[in-house]
Structure formats: C-alpha cells, structure tokens
Fold these 3 entries.
Entry 1:
Amino acid sequence: MLVFTLTPGLRPDVAAAAVRAGDVAAVVLRVLEGGAPDSGHLRAVAEAIQKHDAAVLVDGPENLVAAAGLDGVHVSDQRSLQAALRALKPQAIVGAGGLASRHDAMEAGEGGADYVFFGALEPQPGDAAEILDLVGWWAELFEVPCVGLAASLDEAGALARAGADFVALAETLVADGGAATVTAAMDRLARVDAQP
C-alpha cells in the first residue's frame, strides 16, 4: 500500500508511476482537515491509480467514495468506523486505522472492517517498535488482513517478517522518487518471501 496526501501538487502521473513500480494493492489518499478536496483532481488521481489495478481509498468523508468513483475509505477515527461500515459495506472497502490498542483492533476486526491498519498515516518517531509488535500479535491470531506502516525500507522488511499481510509505505518514503522507493521496497519484500 502507498500513502499520499491529496494536495494540489499531487500529480496523477506521479502517483500512477509509484503504483506501476511494484505490486501495489491499494493507495490511501489523505484529505487535509478543514478543506473540501477538488473533486476533479481527486477523480483524476484516482483514475490514474485505478488503471494499474490498485484500489483507491480515501482517508476523509465517506461521501467522496461515490462522488469520485473510489473503492472505499480508510477510517482513522474509530468513532466513525461503524457509520462507514453501515453506509458502504458490502459495495466498498472499509479499512480501520487509528487503532490505539489491541482492544480497538479486535473490535474493528469483529465489526466487519476489511483490514486493520497499525500506525498513523503520518508516522511518529518511535512508533516502529509498537507497530511491529501489534502486527506480530495480530498475524498469529486473526484472519482479518493487517497492514503495518513503514517509514523506512528496513521497517518494511521487518513488518513483512512479522507477518503483515500488507506493508504501507509512508508518504515520507514515496513523496519524492516514489517509483524508485517502491521498487526498492519490493526488492526487500521479495527477499523476505524467499527466506526459508
């Protein structure tokens, strides 16, 4: 997975190039708080990504899903998760982020979320060890797919070894030279898969 913030500077071709550079299942587009996104720009970015068979999820208002032809939402606020599940399932993907505890993750998984996402979309210093711990715990016990956020290529490899179903590359990794970073991450993940 890749994370981008929907700003006027996010070019559809740049986002698509990053997706094309590897086996990217989904892209989470963050919508900045307090501002309504340009629906034409959102649709253009989404279409460029979707052409390469990656789902586009918005971390923002759920009404954007239908309005911009998106595949679903990434819900970072647990208070909004149940409302999103009721409004969008089963037609759209509803992922659960913003998980502050193991209990929150279990509630999200049991509530019908399509995936649980460990780590904030904007990584915080020192979060890597906790994300790794949560991914390892979840992968051993639960069937709902889990995603771990990586703020470095080393973290991407560690999350894969811990059993993450998907590794999300933080925007800090893919903002500049996203395609090259995705290629490097895919190489790291392939090496993990090749280990006995």
Note: Residues 178-194 form the longest helix (17 residues).
Entry 2:
Amino acid sequence: MAFGIKRAELVKWKRDIDRGEIAFLTHYWVDDRFHEMRTVTKAGAMNIDQLSDWGSQYGLKKEWIHIREDGYSHYDLIGDTQLYILKSEGLTEHIERFKIK
C-alpha cells in the first residue's frame, strides 16, 4: 500500500517516463513481506533496455524490473540499495522528506 505522495508527483513521474527519462518516485509503503521497510523508491522508464542498463550500474538485475503493460515499468528500491541509489543520483530531497536512513 502506497501513501505520502500527491497526485501531481505521480503525474510528474509518469510524464518524465513518457519523455524517455529514468524517473524516481519515493513514497511511504507498507508490505507484509518487508516489515522493517517504510519507504520505496520506484525507478522507472518506458524503455526496458534503458532501465536495465541504468540498473546494472547499481547491480540491479533485469529480471527484477516490474514490467507493466501501461509502460510504467520500474525497479522497486528499498533498504540500503534505495539509500545508496538516491544518494548517487543526487536525490537528497527524497532522503530528507521521507527520513530514509
């Protein structure tokens, strides 16, 4: 279950993907499979190969991509990987806003 984002943020994430960018959307998250995790960052792109190439620099595997028919395929980044990638991508506002440690 996702919460803590505004509709405009979701619209911007989709618009960035539609423009061919790698786009990031962080939100609060509850998932029984990951009790200790409170946030997730979706790193998405329209082009699966572009997304896979981007992810490989962080050790992410292509088979970890959540492939969606609507074109908003993405990696779900959590935990230490999420924090490392957000720092590496210069997305400190995500870290600060969601108090990711």
Note: The helical segments are 7-18, 48-56, 79-88, 92-97.
Entry 3:
Amino acid sequence: MRRALCLALVALPPLAACGPVPVQEAERLCVEKANEALHPRGELALGVGSAGKPVGALDVTISTDFLLGRDPGQVFDACVKARSGQFPSRPLADQPGWVG
C-alpha cells in the first residue's frame, strides 16, 4: 500500500502538467502556431570569423500546417480548444502577435 502511494505521488506531477491551461495562455501559445501556418520563417546570419573567413548560418522553419495549406484561423482555434478545452475569447485577427 505504501509503495503504491509513493508511486502515485511520483506519477502525479508530470500528469498535472498535461492538463488544460487557461484560455488566455492557450491563445498566447497558439498565435505562434497560427503564424507558422501562414508562411515559412527563416533567419540568416552572416559574419566574418576570427581568421577573416566569411561565416554564415541559415535556419528555416516550415510547419506541417503550412505544407498542408491549413487556414491559420482554424489552426489557432483548434490549438486553443486542444490546450484549454475552451474556444478562444477573441478571434485570431485580434490577438497580440498575429502577423497576418
């Protein structure tokens, strides 16, 4: 009995992290997902190394939602519903951070 109680106490914290989040937090997190569905994102860095040689880096992010042609508004709504269990309190176009 005591061992089962100890195992339950160890298992509960990770499971609690999987629960729903407040709708405002879900909206904040899901705006980024909607932005990624709108278009690919990238970053390019160029510079000169210590030996005088040019150096560079390229980072490109392409979401599966973009590749599948999903509507960013629908991606946002589904994401908020999945994370919070509620529908968004306001549409994607009214969310801070939306670049559309």
Note: The beta strands are 41-48, 54-61.
